[in-house]
Amino acid sequence: MSNIVAIVGRPNVGKSTFFNRLIKRREAIVDAVSGVTRDRHYGKSEWNGREFTVIDTGGYVVGSDDIFEAEIDKQVELAIDEADVIVFMVDVESGVTGMDEDVTNLLRKVNKPVFLAVNKVDNNKRAEDAVEFYSLGLGEYFNIASVNGSGTGDLLDAVVKALPEHVETVEDDLPRFAVVGRPNAGKSSFINALIGEDRYIVTDIAGTTRDAIDTKYNRFGFEFNLVDTAGIRRKSKVKEDLEFYSVMRSIRAIEHCDVCLIVADADRGFDGQVQNIFWLAERNRKGIVILVNKWDLVEKDTNSVRDYEKKIRKELEPFTDVPIVFMSVLNKQRIFKAIETAVEVYNNRTKKIKTSKLNEVLLPIIENNPPPALKGKFVKIKYIMQLPTPQPQFAFFCNLPQYVREPYKRFLENKLREHFDFHGVPISVYMRKK
Questions:
Q1: pLDDT per residue over 49-84, tens digit each?
Q2: Which of these, 131, 71, 129, lies nearest to 103 by C-alpha position?
Q3: Which residues pair with 259 in a beta bridge?
């Protein structure tokens, strides 16, 4: 599981620019998920061999001083609570502001590494002006220019050095299924129904759950670990921004699982937050099962399931090969179908296809449907193999891999799904030089 680095600060200091620079530094690793509200973003990055998750808490809507103060306190406290390391960004052009001091007061109470980054320092005059930020009382600072990357290397060297080392723990080989979704969708009730006891606190207050807890499940021939973003949460914390909180918790659970069971509320539909969690799981290359809960509360006709499913798959394009289970936790309808489906997806994710079988099936298809010629060059795919990775990844060896475009890679992915059943599992297709 990777560490979390939170970028905090007031509006318009360049947090998002710095975030974009971080997540685009290594294309093979990084991707971003647009935020739930107010332009929040979540992405993966790497520096000096250390992977970490980056959270940009940017884009506050200022209605008045009081509204802003409440908003900034809420956002920064949440980021502080989840983060292992905090980057506090300020702007040399505007100097120290009252909003900067508000954030500083919150950070002084934190027992976590905080790095002060003075942005937009791109000449000697501004470097001299940055001395003003000593007045915040946070000690040494880093002069950076997030637009061109100046100074960011030194900052990141310090950040990754401060990231806590993960303690290696002995884990069993059981599959790990994470139950994720927006607040109050029925995640904990689902687990309670499965294990037959009220291990998790279940209330009607959104955001009751807090920390990721594992439950070993061993019934009806199935054995695996259930990971719920669960735990007791103080009522005083319910005022927090629950959507932001939910996604931050989901990041932790998703990174540490094999299959994500994404619980959606049938009344709310497959809305923006559930979609963001879906794409987090997809970008982390996890198996995915969508569970539409509270289906008993929906007025239905003959085509209700078909129409609802069609609407969800429209939102998932181009990755539509995902199982959708309609259930009611309250009535215990189809909850075991959900588990059976998760086990099938796990088996699909760990499936290994023999090289001889891959070439026997796919090479004739490729010969009849070769990649389109580009600039008069013809691509010839000669050999296919599955890579030895935890999730399905396939290498197609050819003479001109740089000329194979995304539409043809999707064609190859569709053929893999058609012939080898990778239902519910993201597939990676790579073109390699033969």
A1: 788 888 877 544 344 454 545 555 566 677 677 788
A2: 71
A3: 177, 287
